[in-house]
Each structure stands twice: as structure tokens, then as C-alpha cells.
Amino acid sequence: xxxxxxxxxxxxxxxxxxxxxxxxxIELFKKVWVQGFIVVLLTFVVLLPFYIVLYIPMIASGxxxxxxxxxxxxxxxxxxxxxxxxxxxxxxxTTFAMCLNAAFLRICKMKxxxxxxxxxxxxxxxxxxxxxxxxxxLIITGLSILGMLACGLGLVYLVVPMSLFPAxxxxxxxxxxxxxxxxxxxxxxxxxxxxxxxIIVAGIIAQLGVLLCFIGVLFTAxxxxxxxxxxxxxxxxxxxxx
Length: 242
Fold this sequence. Notes:
The chain is mostly helical. It has helices at about 5-10, 20-65, 75-110, 125-150, 155-165, 165-170, 175-190, 190-205, 215-220, 225-235.
């Protein structure tokens, strides 16, 4: 669907039903918890190289000069490295997270609609998608900075539309990054309280895995991503089974 069609569907959609989406989320999670666990592991694998690059210079600096951090201040060279590398790390991690979350939502669609096919966790790592994900990461980073500048309250508002980014990214190939952003804000603003409530409740339940010797959270973490699938399904819908 193009942006005009998506906008019309959002404008004509009924108010979301919190109870229906929440119940459907729990039922679908029972079918995709293994896939969610795999996505969490892949996310850690993706994050690891970034953190290695981040900490190796700090460790090397400490070995070369044992007193480098004595005054709780970073050496000038290390500070410059962090200023340059940290934004690159944030954008890189956000890009890969967008692709993995979109792949998880695609798998959710396959399980929900009983579509046969390969559970491709790297489906959105192809060049056209990866380029779009990179632009989306820039948008998310920019919005997050603006949200923090608004005393952090802006982030509370932005968490709703930004939670919908992966769904539009996964299911609307025709939309550009700017159109995905506009569509997410339009849908998020129309149902802000309900979506925010779903994010909070699903997030709390997802963290209950901590009770299982902490490692359980690896199995429950992706539950918090599933509501965006049903939010998209109930408002935009799917034009095909692929």
C-alpha cells in the first residue's frame, strides 16, 4: 500500500480494543516464544562487536598508563574516541535492532495467519531494507535527542509512535522512512493511551522472566514487541499472505 492508502486506513480505523490485543498477544506469544528467544540472542551477538570496540581502547589505555583513570577522568584521546564512536555505535545498534524486530514481526504474522515459509531472521538485512533501516535509525536517534531535551517527558510521548516503526517497516515496503514516521505518528496519536498502556503492561510481563533466575527474561523479552503486530493488523491489515 502507498502512503495515501495507509493514511486513509488509519483515519477510518476504529478505536483499538485493549483487552482483545492483550489477549491475542499472550496467545501468539505461546507460539513464537522460541523465535523471540532466538532474536534476543541474535541481538546480543550484534551488540557484542560494538561493545568490544568500545572497551578495548579503555582497557589498552589502562594497561599502558595504570594511573590514566586515577582522577575519575577519561584521558583526552579516549574522550575524543568516545565522542566520535558512541553516535556511530548507537545508530549501528538501532539499525540492526530495527531489522531484527521487523523479522520477528514477520515471523509473528506467519505464525498468526498460519503461513508456510522460512523463518528468516535476516530477511530485512538485504541491501534495500538495510538502507531504509539506517535512515530509520537516524530518525529514531534524532527524535530521542529531541525527547531528552524536553526534560525527558518528550520520550514518554515518543515511545508510542516509535514502537510502531518496526511494524510499518516490516509490512509496508512501499513507504519511505519519512512516510513510516508520519504513519506511525498518525496511528500513535489516534490511540496513544491504549498503545501506551499495552506497552507498559506487556513490558512489565516481559520482565517477569527475571524471576526465573534472571535468564528467563531472555525468553520473555520479545513479548513486549508483539502488541505492535496486532495494532498494525487491526488498523491497516494485510493485503496479501506474503
